[in-house]
């Protein structure tokens, strides 16, 4: 749908020019960032208002399903069989701060929730930061292999 506010701003102005504008406190940088932010907020509000109507527009995947802010069980109950889901493994919770056993349990729990209609791509909700223990990454991969979808 769109990239980030920062990416859109530098697409408009060019990376080097935008950074130089910011460094020299040129008002053009603030103007561009404010305009892009305003447009992004309007778009986000429109998306939120559309809600489930997105299904009628052809949206077929929800990405990411962020467990820190969303209840996957509730979302799946309402939209399972109508949407696919990507994510569900927290990059602000389970992956960096959980144990390998907790990572595996979370993968299994979400695969069981999605077993009735399928459509789950269990994955970390965002990039894995360097602080994520290697053991948790391995536990995630192992869990995906051990608990295949039933559907």
Properties at a glance:
151 residues, mainly alpha, 2 domains, flat
Order of helices and strands: HHHEHEHHEH
Into which percent range does the helicity of residues fall? 40-55%
Class by alpha and beta content:
mainly alpha
Q: Output mean pLDDT.
A: 90
Taken together, the total number of domains comes to: 2
Assign an overall shape: flat
User: How many β-strand runs?
Assistant: 3
How large is the radius of gyration? 19 Å
Strand order in the largest sheet: 1-2-3
Strand content: 5-15%
Provide the low-confidence segments as ranges. Answer: none
**Major sheet details:** 3 strands, parallel
Count of helical segments?
7
Kindly, what is the distance between the CA atoms of the first and last residues, rounded to a whole number of angstroms? 30 Å
Report on this model:
The chain is mainly alpha-helical. It folds into 2 domains: 1-51; 60-151, no CATH class. The protein contains 7 helices and 3 strands. The protein has helices at residues 5-13, 15-23, 27-50, 72-79, 94-97, 100-113, 134-146, and strands at 61-65, 84-89, 120-124. A 3-stranded parallel sheet has the order 1-2-3. Helix 4 (72-79) links the parallel strand 1 (61-65) and strand 2. Helix 1 (5-13) crosses helix 2 (15-23) and helix 6 (100-113) runs parallel beside helix 7 (134-146). The longest helix has 24 residues, at 27-50.
């Amino acid at each position: 749908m769109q990239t980030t506010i920062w990416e859109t701003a530098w697409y408009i102005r060019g990376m080097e020019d935008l950074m130089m504008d910011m460094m020299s406190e040129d008002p053009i940088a603030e103007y561009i960032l404010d305009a892009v932010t305003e447009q992004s907020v309007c778009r986000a509000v429109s998306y939120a208002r559309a809600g489930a109507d997105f299904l009628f527009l052809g949206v077929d995947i929800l990405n990411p399903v962020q467990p820190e802010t969303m209840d996957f069980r509730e979302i799946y109950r309402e939209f399972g069989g109508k949407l696919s889901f990507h994510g569900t493994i927290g990059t602000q919770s389970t992956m960096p701060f959980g144990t390998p056993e907790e990572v595996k349990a979370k993968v299994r729990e979400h695969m069981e929730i999605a077993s009735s209609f399928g459509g789950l791509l269990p994955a970390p909700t965002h990039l894995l930061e360097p602080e994520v223990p290697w053991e948790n990454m391995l536990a995630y991969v192992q869990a995906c292999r051990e608990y295949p979808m039933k559907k």
